[in-house]
Design a protein that fits this description.
This protein is mostly helical. It has 2 domains: 10-64, Orthogonal Bundle (Arc Repressor Mutant, subunit A), CATH 1.10.10.60; 79-186, no CATH class. Helices cover 73% and strands 0% of the residues. α1 (10-33) crosses α4. The chain is elongated.
Amino acid sequence: MTETAGAPRRSDATRAAILEAARERFAADGYERATIRAIARDADIDPSMVMRYYGNKEGLFAAASEFDLRIPEVGALPTAHIGAVLVSHFLDRWEQDEVLTALLRASVTNAAAADRAREIFKAQLGPIALGVCPDPAEAPRRAALVASQILGMALARYVLRFPPAVDMSREEVVAWLAPTVQRYLTAELP
């Protein structure tokens, strides 16, 4: 059988199967307990194929946790609504994507996962801060402050599952966090 132009190659299908299995396994077991053997078994391939494509568990995790936070374009929004839009967006992402929760969980105990989380937030949240804060030199600090609120709530609500954080309605979370995120991004320095 010959491959036709534009048809996916077998290696592409194998990589996709590995990444899907890895995302599910990391989400279910966390970084520390997930194993290459279990991921390979879930993908119905030999463990050597995982190593061939990704080198090691850290390389596989980096590839499996490569995702776009899909942060909305805030340039078209009135500045006064940016905090609420971002908080709502991140609640959607945490509630729809277990890989993001797995990344947060792993980031607490694993240096490679922490590096990955820093890269994602720097690359994707940093430009938002740069685009709206009054002093561009302050953008990295402001992005870090926003991340502290977003990640703090995610840790309390989706990982540690603190009952008061879990029991709050979505509207309550937005009402509490949005003004703080807004202030971090747009207020003059204290």
